[in-house]
Design brief:
Layout: E1 3-7, H1 13-26, E2 32-37, E3 42-45, H2 51-54, H3 57-62, E4 66-69, E5 77-79, E6 83-91, H4 101-113, E7 119-121, E8 125-128, E9 131-141, E10 144-152, H5 157-163, E11 171-173, H6 196-207, E12 213-215, H7 220-234, H8 237-242, E13 247-255, E14 259-268, E15 271-278, H9 287-293, H10 301-308, H11 313-316, H12 322-329
Parallel strand pairs: 1-2, 1-12, 3-4
Antiparallel strand pairs: 2-6, 3-5, 6-10, 7-8, 8-9, 9-10, 11-13, 13-14, 14-15
Length: 331
């Protein structure tokens, strides 16, 4: 069967995940589709994960990292322009029993031809010298399968480790937690001087070896369809954060001006359902009054700021600003 190659015109994560979904749902099912694409500065969380539990919210905000939820399961991953992603979309009668390795092996074979000896570890990771450089996941529906994977080519691993650094002891939830593995970039294992462009071209040539390759150019109608999905799902806070499993989070900080403030926050569908305040802090007002004002508010900086800017926070927590309280809630 011929393989149809589609190249994304964008590095926006919401667009690229929408493009995957569009191809999966709308393009003819008698073809197998292969895509190479990149996201700029993004965290992609798994379908069943608690977004707040996976990301370092303060770091993500300070570094303008986009957070988007994908359709498939698995753990959270960091993408930048040193990372290359690939996708296979195909029909499969018994898709529910297809092993992830079926779609990982072409990448392993392609790397072998480039002089890189990689192998599978566990169910969905590809490793070199025991270090993960590619994670994979799948989405299956109506006898159709979408397999996608990441390739750490030359990513900023320091940003990766900070952006995904969330404290599991501060959360109690039923969300699927990511497993942090030792990771490595692929570039040091390739011939010296290999660029991402060269690797991309070599990968495309080898990944489809033995199969006829045809290129599909997205039409204006296709792009309109992608944008509709993007705006209706992947740009929405309700999808990226709100569909997270319910959870309870604990926050605490000792402010020099007022003392220790401890928060117990129950979050349902991404919004504050209950907020209890404890600590040895000093203030004039009843902190439960302030907590009541935050019920129903999204666990998101803009929404929290909009509420707290209308409240004299320092009346409840001496000399603490609304911005400092937002930082504590999202710590």
């Amino acid at each position: 069967m011929a393989i149809t190659y589609i190249e994304s015109p964008s590095t926006d994560p919401a667009f690229n995940l929408a493009l995957e979904e569009y191809v999966f749902k709308n393009l003819p099912r008698d073809k197998t589709y292969f895509m190479l694409w990149q996201n700029d500065n993004a965290i992609i969380v798994g379908r069943h994960q608690n977004t707040a539990e996976e990301v370092n919210a303060v770091y993500v905000s300070e570094h303008n990292i986009k957070v988007v939820r994908r359709l498939s399961g698995g753990g959270a991953v960091y993408h930048d322009l040193g990372n290359l992603n690939y996708t296979f979309i195909a029909d499969a009668k018994d898709a529910q029993v297809i092993d992830l390795q079926y779609f990982c092996l072409p990448l392993i074979r392609a790397l072998e031809k480039l002089g890189v000896h990689a192998g599978m570890q566990g169910r969905n990771d590809i490793v070199i010298d025991g270090k993960k450089f590619s994670g994979n996941s799948q989405y299956i529906k109506d006898d159709r399968i979408m397999h996608h994977g990441t390739i750490l080519f030359d990513s900023d691993l320091s940003v990766l480790s900070e952006a995904l650094k969330a404290d599991p002891e501060k959360f109690e939830s039923k969300g699927v937690k990511s497993v942090r593995n030792r990771v490595t970039n692929l570039r040091p294992y390739l011939p010296e001087g290999t660029t991402l462009k060269q690797f991309r071209e070599a990968l495309l040539a080898n990944m489809t070896e033995g199969e006829e390759l045809e290129t599909y150019t997205l039409s204006p109608a296709d792009l309109m369809g992608v944008q509709k999905i993007r705006q209706g799902r992947y740009e929405l806070w309700d999808w990226n954060y709100g569909v997270s499993p319910d959870y309870t989070v604990r926050r605490s900080k000792r402010f020099p001006s007022c003392g220790l403030v401890e928060l117990r926050i129950q979050v349902v569908e991404g919004r504050i359902a209950n907020l209890a305040v404890f600590g040895d802090f000093i203030g004039n007002g009843d902190a439960d009054e302030l907590a009541g004002e935050l019920k129903g508010c999204r666990m998101e900086r803009r929404a929290l700021t909009a509420v707290l800017e209308l409240i004299p926070v320092s009346w409840y927590f001496f000399d603490v600003s609304s911005e400092e309280l937002v930082d504590l809630i999202l710590l």
